[in-house]
Amino acid sequence: MDAPLPRRRAAKLEMMMRMRKLTAAALLTLMMLAPVTPAFAVSKEIIQLQTQVQDLADRIAKMQQTFDERMGVMRSLVEQSTDNVNKLADGVQTMQRTLQQQNTDSQAKIEQVSGQIQTLNDSIDELKARLTKTSKQLEDIQAQQQNLQQQPAPQGPLVPGQAPGAVVAPPQASAPPADVLYNNALRDYNAARYDLALQQFQDYLHYYPTTDLAGNAQFYIADMEYRAGSFEAAVKDFDKVLEQFPGGNKAAASQLKKGYSLLELGRKEAGVRELNSLINRYPRSSEATQARERLHKLGATATGAHSSTHRTTR
Questions:
Q1: pLDDT of residue 180
Q2: Which of the 8 DSSP states describes residue 114?
Q3: Residues of the chain with pLDDT under 50
Q4: Which of 26, 40, 83, 181 gives 20 to 30 Å between its CA and that of 117?
Q5: What is the sign of the dihedral through the CA atoms of 261, 239, 251 and 189?
Q6: CATH code of the domain covering residue 215
Q7: Contact predicate 222/256, CB 8 Å
Q8: Cβ neighbours of residue 103 closer than 8 Å, sequence gap 6 or more
Q9: For the chain, what is the domain count?
Q10: Which domain holds residue 228?
Q11: Helix H or strand E encompassing 51
């Protein structure tokens, strides 16, 4: 009866030992598996995060590339626009210089043509004076012939323009003929020998102050003073032309040059007033055209009633 009890106890002990081994193995297995599961989960999240970061980096790189390309295009457009603006500005400046040069050339040509017209007018006036003188001489010769026929024995030589028997005063030896003196003075003036021309025109006014060309001589004296920069003296002598020879063919030119002289003296208001007076008095003359152009350059308004730029030869 005693033998089976120890066997049962031994079996129980053996079973208990097996249970303990199995429990220990299970615990060991659990202990080994417990740290592995969290590490695997963390590694997966890191991989996902790295994948997202890499995707974001790729997108940023693409955006940067696109931005760089667009910035390059914009930079190219800005450079092209800048070049176009610079070219346009250069073109505008070139055009302005061309227009200024054309205006200067036009003004110089107008003044040159005006001077040629004045010289031509002087030549015409001289021819008229010669024709008048010749006609007068012919009339005197005819009168002399009639007188000779009526008076066979005149008491003295007849002189053209003098009555028979009148006492004839001897001509002044120092005074050359009017046409010779005037032509010599005009020739020296056109050749820019102003000292000689000035003296000869002054002599002409001294000996022949009432002839048709006296106003021209006075004008050229004032004009030479203007060319020499003596603007005060020029104003006074141009005034003499306007006051003493108002109907002469140098009245408009004298008023124009008087206005220029006043402007050169810094008397802008008086100069503008003189040029406007010229435009009102001679609206269709070449001098009026020059006066309008000068007023335009000054920024002043031409107050003349006529705006036509047609020219007439006087």
A1: 92
A2: H
A3: 1, 34, 36-37, 153-156, 158-159, 161, 166-172, 306-314
A4: 181
A5: negative
A6: 1.25.40.10
A7: no
A8: none
A9: 1
A10: 177-298
A11: helix 4-150
